[in-house]
Design a protein that fits this description.
The chain has 501 residues and is of the alpha+beta class. Helices cover 33% and strands 20% of the residues. The two termini are 32 Å apart.
Length: 501
């Protein structure tokens, strides 16, 4: 659990970095600015956080809300996730007989954060969960009548939209926002904040008509925000030089699930204005990824569905090497250790029973695109992947005993999602190798979504942030399905704060 004392101690290095930056590096005489556009509220980024902020602001009476998106389509990185969101104590959980609470969700996340996560921010997000759940349904999002068990949780709480993609949230929210009068605009790249002499944020610089990869394209304009600016630009996973500077192990040879626009524009701009950086080197890799496809891919959905009732095998030993539903960091760290005798990657195998795997639509896609393969016997798996046969047979036999007993003595896996699901032929097998997925680090905010200045420790007037661009919420490791509700919760919070300003 992160106390104020531990937070100050752990963030000392980051604070020192931020303190070297002036509170307002680009201060401007507001009387000399030529404003090309003026809006009540300016939102940068059209992902979960941006659209949640827009919808909430409109609900609260805002008449002139604009969203700027630098790419040619809306949604950014948010469209690429598996369409999951962890909510506690919902009507669907009650219908399915699942007992859960916001407090239990917070405790799970604190454990995953390994002492670095902000209990205050996590609790704020978790308590807003039921509101976000209902808000998305009001926007037209449709959830499956099934809840997924994600790693590191003590209750099954990951609700999933029927599209099984973040687009299942983005499209209905975009449609709703437009109906409410919000003005979303594509090909508008955020270039920086415009601030006054006192450090307060007046507006932003935008490159209108921008085309990704052509950095000089478009026309620079100044956009005034009468109430405030909300930065919701996401993380920096696709910015290889930036992430490698923070973690030398994350160079170009490491895959990434993020959209190409996840380059950290908003983060870098806020740092230049003196915002407090937090936990920038905490960069999470997804343990459900496949090395046999690019980006997020189909394999992620397949493994996410099948981890609870399947086993992950080390190809050198034919044995399990982890709890397949442990938190992401635990699994990713163990997966990346799977190497051959020369130290080269030797990706682990996820072995799932077809009779259960076929209940999820992702199975057809992973087979069609050679991300996974079907085998009629254990012998066929061992031969194809050069796995010791005897240990593999014994491991599968042992696993089925664990399923029958409802207890995993090997790694303590929670077995309630495996009841009656035995590992029998035919099998569907996918390789596992982590990919850079989520940046836990970013700029510091408070429970009002106000951006905190490193120099003063106080909010920067007129500046708010939400989503992956912020840091300190999750700590070392984020639990699966928890970014979507957190992004939306702080998007909603930012809108509420702006409307009160």
């Amino acid at each position: 659990m992160q106390t104020r004392r531990s937070f100050l101690k752990l963030g000392a290095g980051a604070a020192a970095m931020g303190a070297m930056v002036p509170l307002s590096a680009n201060a401007t005489d507001s009387k000399k600015i030529k404003w090309d556009e003026t809006h009540e509220i300016v939102i940068v980024g059209s992902g979960f956080a941006g659209f949640a902020a827009a919808v909430e602001a409109a609900k609260l009476g805002a008449k002139d809300v604009v969203i700027f998106e630098k790419l040619g389509v809306y949604g950014g990185n948010s469209t690429l996730n598996a369409g999951q969101a962890c909510f506690a104590n919902t009507d669907l959980q009650k219908k399915l007989g699942i007992e859960d609470s916001a407090e239990l969700m917070v405790q799970d996340q604190l454990k995953s954060g390994r002492g670095y996560a902000s209990e205050e921010l996590l609790r704020h997000s978790a308590e807003l969960g039921p509101y976000i759940y209902q808000m998305t349904k009001d926007c037209g999002c449709v959830y499956r009548d099934h809840i997924i068990n994600t790693g590191g949780t003590s209750a099954t709480r990951s609700h999933q939209v029927v599209e099984r993609s973040g687009a299942g949230f983005i499209r209905p929210m975009l449609k709703t926002a437009r109906k409410m009068g919000v003005k979303p605009k594509i090909r508008h790249k955020f270039e920086g904040l415009i601030t006054a002499d006192d450090g307060s944020v007046l507006g932003i610089k935008v490159r209108k008509g921008y085309h990704f990869g052509h950095e000089d394209s478009g026309e620079m304009i100044n956009v005034r925000a009468k109430r405030g600016v909300i930065i919701a630009t996401g993380g920096f996973g696709a910015n290889v030089s930036f992430r490698q500077a923070l973690d030398p192990n994350l160079g170009s040879e490491v895959g990434c699930t993020n959209a190409r626009g996840a380059t950290g524009d908003g983060l870098i701009a806020m740092l230049s204005e003196g915002a407090m950086p937090v936990h920038l080197s905490f960069i999470q890799s997804g343990p459900w990824a496949s090395p046999d496809e690019g980006g997020f891919g189909y394999g992620a959905g397949f493994s996410l569905y099948n981890f609870p009732h399947s086993i992950a095998i080390d190809r050198n030993t034919g044995q399990r090497f982890m709890n397949e539903t442990a938190d992401r960091k635990t699994r990713a760290d163990l997966e990346v250790q799977r190497r051959d005798k020369d130290g080269n990657p030797n990706p682990a195998l996820l072995i799932a029973p077809k009779h259960e795997a076929q209940k999820d639509p992702s199975m057809d896609n992973v087979l069609r695109y050679n991300v996974a393969w079907e085998f009629d016997s254990v012998e066929a798996i061992a031969k194809h992947f050069d796995v010791p046969l005897a240990p593999l047979k014994q491991q599968i036999e042992d696993w089925n005993k664990y399923v029958k007993a409802g207890d995993d003595p090997q790694f303590g896996k929670r077995m309630n999602m495996s009841t009656g699901i035995y590992l029998t032929a035919p099998f569907i097998v996918q390789r596992l190798w982590p990919k850079v997925h989520y940046c836990q680090g970013g700029i510091q905010i408070n429970t009002k979504a106000e951006v905190i200045a490193a120099k003063t420790g106080k909010p920067i007037p007129g500046l708010y942030a939400a989503g992956e661009v912020t840091g300190g919420v999750h700590g070392v490791s984020r639990l699966g399905g928890c970014s979507t509700p957190e992004c939306m919760a702080f998007g909603v919070t930012a809108a509420r704060s702006v409307m009160k300003a």
